[in-house]
Amino acid sequence: MGIGEGFREEVLGEFRFIEFREAEVERPLTLVFAYPDTGLVSVISSSYIINELKLVEFGGIESPALSHIIVVHDGVPKSSIRLYAGKNLVVVFSDIVLSPNLQVSLASALVDYVRLRGIDYIICPTGIPVPNRLDVDTLKTYYVASSKKLAELAEKGGATVLKQGILVGAYATLLRESIKKNVNTLVLLTESFLDFPDPEAAAKGLQVFSKIVNRDIDVSKLLEEAELIKVKTRELMRQTRGVMGQMRKGIEYAPYLYV
């Protein structure tokens, strides 16, 4: 199965999905959504997946709201939201923190993209804040699933169902739209710091994720580079903290979690 067969462009909501090269993939195919959020668990996890599994950049996602932004990597200008693929994975990776409204719009567009391109699952590895994070030695990973099938896979992977809580923003939209449009979506939530980069939580979540998607992901390098990652992602965490604060405004009930 190929994805990104030459140049392809789809306009979905406020976003334009551009595929500029082909990437060979296999079924079942999982889309991983990486967005700066709690403990930067999603971004750290997905960046590691891309590099460790040597995924190929095959496209990007653009929007008029992002037309004034471009990201430069190794001297090459790139979309701020990029698409990577390899074997049974597609990763949507964002370098920037989107406004709350744009997050919701992107999540809705992603569900439509998954249906259009015949992708089987959406999995979002992220964090769930715990107040005593420094005292937690064994981190737990919880899950919220839009379907029984993914709930069963999450259980087999070692995750525990999240029995109560509030999801705010992109992941809430992904789950709501997935239930409405019959898309298999799973949010994996690993205990983490709320507003400090947490590579250790990312490593724990990846161990569960690897079992679900049947890919061997060695997290030893991630743990070895944990302190360097914390330094490199400090500014991104600062920007993310501000947007998370905006999204919590107007919620009268103090949430058990923010993702």
Q: Can you describe what's shown?
A:
Helix 1 packs across helix 5 and helix 3 packs across helix 5. The strands form two sheets. Strands 1, 2, 3, 4, 5, 8, 9, 10, 11 and 12 form a ten-stranded mixed beta sheet that branches. This protein has a two-stranded antiparallel sheet with strand order 6-7. The protein has eight helices and twelve strands. It has one domain: PAC-like subunit (Rossmann fold, 3-Layer(aba) Sandwich). With 259 residues, it is α/β, with parallel strands linked by helices.
Q: Kindly give the count of domains.
A: 1
Second rung of CATH, namely the architecture: 3-Layer(aba) Sandwich
Mean pLDDT metric = 88
What Rg is obtained from the alpha carbons, in whole angstroms? 17 Å
Provide the structure class: alpha/beta
Q: What summary fits the major beta sheet?
A: 10 strands, mixed
Extract low-pLDDT stretches.
249-259
> How far apart, in Å, are the first and last alpha carbons?
33 Å
Précis, in short:
With 259 residues, this protein is an alpha/beta fold. It is 36% helix and 29% strand.
Q: Which labels suit this protein?
A:
259 residues, alpha/beta, 12 strands, Rossmann fold, 29% strand
Give the SSE map.
Blueprint: E1 2-3, E2 8-12, E3 15-19, E4 23-34, H1 41-52, E5 56-62, E6 71-73, E7 76-78, E8 81-94, H2 100-117, E9 121-129, E10 141-145, H3 148-157, E11 160-161, H4 170-181, E12 184-192, H5 199-213, H6 220-224, H7 226-232, H8 234-248
Parallel strand pairs: 4-8, 4-9, 9-12, 10-11
Antiparallel strand pairs: 1-4, 2-3, 3-5, 5-8, 6-7, 10-12
Helix pairs in contact: 1-5, 2-4, 3-5
